Amino acid sequence: VTNGGKTTLAEKLKKMLPNCDIISQDDFFKPESEVETDERGFKLYDVLDALYMDEMVKSIRNWMKNPASSGVVRQEPQNTHDSLKNTDDVYILIVEGFLLYNYEPLNELWNRRYFLTLPYEECKRRRSTRVYQPADTPGYFDGHVWPMYLKYKNEMEENASNFVYLDGTKSQEELLSCMYSDIIQELKKLRE
After folding, report:
1. Residues classed as catalytic
2. Prior bond of 134 cis (ω within 30°)
3. In terms of CB atoms within 10 Å, which end of the chain has fewer, N or C?
C-alpha cells in the first residue's frame, strides 16, 4: 500500500542485517512523459506499465549473480543477533515496492514476502502529507491510487501465496521487530 512505511522499514532492516542491500521499485519509474494519462487527466503511476519492470528484474538478477561485488558494505549489523554472527557468506537483498507481487518474473525470486496494509482513511491521510513530483491532482487518490491498490491486492491474493501480512498502523518498532525475527528464522532455515 502506498505510504505504508515500506522504504522506512527497508532502510532500518538494512542497518540491522549483515551484508544487506536494497533495490527500490521507485527507482524504476518511467519519466512523466512516458506515463499514460486516463480520460480524467490522471497520470497512471499505480500500474505496472508506469515502471521499467524488466530493468528491475535485471538489476535483481545481477545482484543475485554476484552480491559481493554489488557494493554491499561488509559490516557488523547493529544489535547483532547470535545467529547472524560469522555470516560473511550471507547476503540479503531487500526489494521494496508497491507492485512487486503482480509481476510474474519476480515471483520466482522471493524467499519471503511481506505485505503492508493500511485502512483507507489512514492511507489517504498519510498520502495527503506527502509531496510528489508531479503533485497529486485533486481526486487522484480516490480516482486512481486506492482503486489500483485494491485491484492489485486482489490479483496478488488470487495468484500467489506465502505472504506475511503486516498491519501498517502498528508502530515502526513493532513492525521492524516482527520482520527482523521472521528474517532471522528464515536465515536459520536457509543455513540448515
Report:
1. 26
2. yes
3. C
- Helix and strand numbers (H, E) in the chain are 7, 4
**Residues sharing a CB contact under 8 Å with residue 135, sequence separation 6 or more, in sequence order:** none
Q: What is the pTM of this model?
A: 0.88
Would you call 61 exposed, middle or buried from its count of C-beta atoms within 10 A (0-12, 13-18, 19+)? exposed
Q: Are 98 and 2 in contact (CB under 8 A)?
A: yes
Q: Is residue 25 part of a domain?
A: yes
Domain containing residue 169 = 6-67+91-187
Q: How many domains are there within the chain?
A: 1
- CATH at residue 24: 3.40.50.300
Question: CA angle 97-159-96, nearest 5°?
Answer: 10
**Cα 36 to the center of its chain, rounded Å:** 23
Q: Is 43 helix (H, G, I), strand (E, B) or coil?
A: strand
The reply to whether 155 falls in a domain is yes
Over residues 77-100, the pLDDT tens digits come to 555 555 555 556 788 999 999 999
The letter for the amino acid at 49 is D
